[in-house]
Amino acid sequence: MGAPDVQEVPAVTTTSRAVRRKSRPAAPPDPARPFLPTTEQIRLLDPAGTPLPAHPDYPAPPVETLVELYRRMVLGRRFDLQATALTKQGRLAVYPSARGQEACQVGAILALRDEDWVFPTYRESMALTARGIDPVEVLTLLRGDWHCGYDPAVRRTAPQCTPLATQCVHAAGLAYGEAYQGRDTVALAFLGDGATSEGDFHEGVNFAAVFKAPVVYFIQNNEYAISVPLSRQTAAPSLAYKGVGYGVPSERVDGNDPVAVLAVLTRAVAHARAGHGPFLVEAHTYRMEPHTNADDAARYRDADEVASWQDRDPVVRLETYLRDRGALDDTTVARVAAQAEEYAAALRERMHDKPTVDPLTLFDHVYAEPTPQLVEQREQVRAELAADQEGAG
Ligand SMILES: Cc1ncc(C[n+]2csc(CCOP(=O)(O)OP(=O)(O)O)c2C)c(N)n1
Ligand SMILES: [Mg+2]
User: Fold this and answer.
1) Which protein residues touch ligand 1 with a CB less than 6 Å away?
2) Which residue's CA is minimally distant from atom 21 of ligand 1?
3) Against a cut of 0.85, is the pTM above it?
4) pLDDT digits over 329-341, tens only?
5) CB 224 within 8 A of CB 3
């Protein structure tokens, strides 16, 4: 039997369904409508930094907050450059840069309270420094010293997740637990475009929706999952449509417009905090650097594409807007730049110190009760270290 001839069957589209419905009684209002994102990305500044007409649902945040957003974005960018340089000096094992994604990394943090929880991935080092975590503690994982350099419970920030999308489930569980105990904590889970293809993303979003867990799922769609472009990741018109199937209101935003990112996330966080359940935001952005320092991006994307995103630089865009509003002048810009240099110099200095790491602590805190396998592996490492020391002595 040959394969059926599918070419003669027209694709089903909403247009063809609408035509069929014409002869039927008027359809009730679309119950999916409240969950759907806007057809256009939310944008409050044009790419040059000129304000667009006010948006009825997304008022621009107060100007003092935007100046602070600018300051942390400049520091974040400088931190990121420094971290990339540290990989070249052998001080860091690996670094996934977020250059170009500053509006998302810092905007998300400013939308939260200190008591809220952040669930970051390996890409969010900049976001963690914007949260005020010591940059050396942020880089502990990427230096290969330990699983996490800061105390997650104190900083209300989970360790950076390398297994894709696992943080989506953790965020749902934590947020549900907090709400169950009567607290109005919000959890914000960062994820990338590639992570939306993982089962854990769908399970986390579904659980959060059904149990009204106050989570904001924040997708930074930077167009690539390592070398895999978005067109090979999804056939959906926007990743923001992934919310509707689970009954989660969703929005899409220009991820290189810092004012819009903060406005949209502020509303998303307020929605979750008010007890309405999760919210999903897709930010359209771009990573200017390779996936990590170990990747060669020239093998899968061309220079013209990268250059076209340079014109939408989020730091320049916000600076132009604030200068035009009279909220930023040369003196403040120079002061922020000097602060960023000091921040990077202090980090550089401290990262030159040789880390003192006891390899056996790697096995601590993996489980509350270590498994027999972990006990055995720990013993193997201990014996090897002891033999090394005997050999050296
Ligand atoms: C479960 C799992 N599968 C595969 C990988 C390997 N991996 C690491 S990063 C990455 C790409 C992720 O892309 P995206 O979610 O778009 O995030 P981005 O790196 O662009 O920020 C992949 C496939 C992984 N870490 N975890
Ligand atoms: Mg990506």
Assistant:
1) 123, 162-164, 192-195, 198, 222, 224-226, 291
2) 192
3) yes
4) 999 999 999 999 9
5) no
